[in-house]
Amino acid sequence: MSAARVATGPDDVGIVPTGVANLEAVAAAFRRLGRTPRLLDSAAGISSADYVILPGVGSFAGGMAELRRRGWAEAVRRRVTEGRPTLAICLGLQLLCQESEEAPGTAGLGCVPGRVVRLAENCRVPQLGWNRLGAPAGTTFLRSSIVYFANSYGLEAGPAGWTAAMGRHGSRFVAGLERGGVLACQFHPELSGKVGAGLLKRWLAEAPGAAAEFERRVERPTLAAAC
User: Are 2 and 30 in contact (CB under 8 A)?
Assistant: First the structure.
């Protein structure tokens, strides 16, 4: 991958190399928007980057094994839980969930409640190609549109605490999620032409403010008085 490996300043965009992703396609999409993404190589880098991208094309077990082997799982989980600007793509969305039918016994990051299941068998699986995404009114990032998918598994229902956009391939599945500065796409925005570019541009522009608003709304426990 030809993404820069040095910090890019106040709008630092970092990509988590999960070992199961086409990193160059993701990096190229951000370069077209005038950004120079870098590969992240530590938990500290994941924590400190202004924007973090969690891509993935491959198996749930493989993606989780790589995050845990490198000691990055907790840093990603913390970012997402705090609503900081984070973009999960395809398998990346699934890794945020509690578990997947694809890998029984393998725990996901658990940021998104729910179990990922195989798409309905009354349509061709994997789903490869363009399909409709239906977004509710009032979303920060997601818009109803036609986008590019490449998946065999998906989350069946929108989870509590998240705004969900839905798709249909035999049966309904979660096509996208957002909360605070977090955007999770079951589809590939980097392969979705002008629609995908517009989505990435909105995320870059709006995620910091959405994250700050989310932080203000989150209830914080009252600290116990010092002894």
Answer: no
